[in-house]
Every structure is written in C-alpha cells, then in structure tokens.
Amino acid sequence: MIFSVAVEVRPLEGIANPEGLTIERALPALGFTGVRGVRVGKLLRFELDAVDEHHARREVEQMCEHLLANPVIERADIHLEAVGGTQ
Amino acid sequence: MIFSVAVEVRPLEGIANPEGLTIERALPALGFTGVRGVRVGKLLRFELDAVDEHHARREVEQMCEHLLANPVIERADIHLEAVGGTQ
C-alpha cells in the first residue's frame, strides 16, 4: 500500500529555538501584536510503499531515529494516511 | 480569545527542494526503500490573541505575506484552534 506520510520534527520543550525567537521579535515591528511562543520546526512529507499501516509506522519511526530527527533536542510526530494500492 | 496557530510553509510544486532530495537519496543507503517525493517545509506554531477566528485568520494571513512565507516559491497553510479566553 502507498501511504502519504507527514513527519513533524520540532524542538523539545526547553530547547532554544532561535528561529522562532527571531520571528517573535520581528512581528511587533510589523504591527502584529498578541503573538507569543513562536516555535519553528520542520514538516517532512513523502510517500511510502509498505505492506500495511503497522509496518509503515515502524519504518518511519526508524527513519526518524536514524536520519530525520535528533532525539536529544527534537521530537518527531508521525501522521500516516493510506492513499492507494501498491504500485 | 487565544488561538493555537500552526502554519505550514512548504515549497510550491515544481520548486526545487534540495533538503528533501538529500534525504531521499540518503534513505536507501540506510536500508529504507520505498520512499519517494520527499519535500521538507517549515511548521510554525504559536499562540495568538485575537477578537475572533475571522480576525485571527486574517492576521495570520498578513503575517505570512509580510514575514513567514515567500509567496514566489512557497505556500502557507494556516490551522487555527481556539484554546481559551483573552488573557
């Protein structure tokens, strides 16, 4: 089966997020007040061919451990959706 | 009202995404086959104080136009969720 996969990789609570801090400081100068707690992470989207959802999720978890995320400073949330049969 | 906001900023179709391409090329060497079409974007999360959802969405759209996304090469998708009253 083909799965549409989205992996959100974001900094753990307590880990500095300079990109978010820079955005938060820039917004008031542009007239946007009322924004706080800006955190910037990555969102990876791809298609994965796997036997079933269980295997797909396990494979994506292993990808996160080995390449996509740094577990010391980041967490990864996985979203899977079946989009079609095996090609 | 306080809104929990998530903004996904991702490259438009047809725009090169070197980070995604690098990941896609690295995965087979780590034993992960069956992955294709890797695209890497940003996911911004923050809290916004606004009168109602209509105003909140309009404000976030303007933030995207002015700071968060480059409309020439990126699209921004906005997700809003009310999480509490005005502080």
Average pLDDT, all residues of chain A? 95
The most extensive interface between chains reads:
A-B, 32 and 32 residues
Please work out how many helical segments of chain A DSSP would assign.
2
The fold-level CATH name of chain A is: Mth169, Chain: A
SSE succession of chain A: EHEHE
Helix content of chain A: 25-40%
CATH superfamily of chain A: Phosphoribosylformylglycinamidine synthase subunit PurS
Structural class of chain A: alpha+beta
Q: How large is the share of residues in beta strands of chain A? A: 35-45%
Main sheet makeup of chain A: 3 strands, antiparallel
Q: Roughly how many Å is the radius of gyration of chain A?
A: 17 Å
Tally of structural domains of chain A: 1
Residue windows where pLDDT falls under 50 for at least 5 positions of chain A: none
Shape annotation of chain A = elongated
Distance between the termini of chain A: 8 Å
Structure summary, number of beta strands of chain A: 3
User: Strands of the biggest beta sheet of chain A: in what spatial order?
Assistant: 2-1-3
